[in-house]
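Hi Y.,

Following your request, here is the sequence exactly as I used it, all 128 residues.
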Amino acid sequence: MQTHPEEFKLTKEDIQKTERKIAAFDLSKEQSILSVIPQKLELLIKTNLNAFVVELINDVSRLYNIIMSLQDLDDNLKRRILYALDYFVDKDDEIPDEIPDLGYLDDLVIVRYIVDQIMSENSELFQA
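Below is the corresponding structure, written out as tokens. Let me know if you'd prefer a different format.
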């Protein structure tokens, strides 16, 4: 099955729902989220690597590197990054990760939404 991630975008309602979840995100979950990212990426690398899984790995790695290397991020930016990373590590999100070929598609859409926002507002973070 060929899946083209650029065909999948958040609807206006999805964006509103996502923004509400980001605003309410608990920053105290930071260490528990960050501690599982390397293992989750390692597992994903060992799967069937199609184009959108590679894109997801790259985007998650970027966000992880930003939050690990920049200790003085403002809370809003930190909340956005952690929300995306938390969505990525949650196996039972909108499309459970175990579903072949599609399980990480929703993760990509959410992570890409956050990456695109950060790139448009804080592109210097991706220069490092």
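The chain is about 60% helix and 0% strand.

Thanks again,
Q.
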